[in-house]
Amino acid sequence: MHSTPSGGKAMTNEFPKPPQGIKCECGGTLVTAILPKYDFSGYVGFEVMLNGMEGLRCDKCGGETLPGGLINVVLNYTIVQIVKQPRRLNGAEARYLRHSMDATQEELATRMGIARETVGKWECGGADISAQHDFVLRVFALTMLIGQGLLPAELARQIMADTFVSVRAEPPRPATTIDVDLSDIGRMRTLAAQRKPPPAPRSAVG
After folding, report:
1. Which of 25, 73, 136, 168 is at a distance of 20 to 30 A from 86, taking alpha carbons?
2. Where do the DSSP E strands lie in the chain?
3. What is the largest distance, in Å, between two alpha-carbon atoms of the chain?
């Protein structure tokens, strides 16, 4: 029942109530249900657990899934949590940030001015990402969220200031579980609502 989106690009943090009456592959019907625990790991490539989310459960086979809008919000929340890690990124985390930007290894390498093989080595564990490239990758990911209206620029700058020293000092380590509950989703939506709109263009004088 878990449907993993390719690429993992998340465009919005607004989501409707779970749809009703959708048929499951087994022939049963998906009905709204509170899911005490939902393993989100298949969407991101490392361990993320959702707690108490409103999702869908089949009334016949018991399979569980999430509405698409909620998936998008969790994907965006996961980006923020990765960027806030007080150490350099491991391969799975670097790969997820790249996927979230909908970029190939070649495209990311070009933006960074490095070889594609370098990106591949980070992601497969063949080499640790450098502190400089780690920092740049995080900035790229946060800039994407800012551009999509999902994160205030002021908060993004604070996150990078908070992690700058530790990223330079701490090597990559295996990811720890990211736990997500309803209050986390609420904070993500509030942050998007607090984003300041860009200033209006000045009128030409003449």
Report:
1. 73
2. 30-39, 48-58, 64-65, 178-180
3. 71
Q: Minimal CA–CA distance to 92: which of 42, 139, 39, 144?
A: 42
Tokens of 190: 């509030």
Long-range contacts of 118-126 (CB under 8 A, 24+ apart): 119/94, 122/89, 122/91, 122/94, 123/91, 123/92, 123/94, 123/95, 123/98, 124/91, 125/90, 125/91
The two three-digit tokens of residue 28, written as one number: 């049963």
For the chain, state the CA radius of gyration: 19
Give residue for tokens 């933006």.
111
pLDDT (tens digit, 9 = 90+) per residue, 134-185?
999 999 999 999 999 999 999 999 999 998 888 878 888 887 789 999 888 8
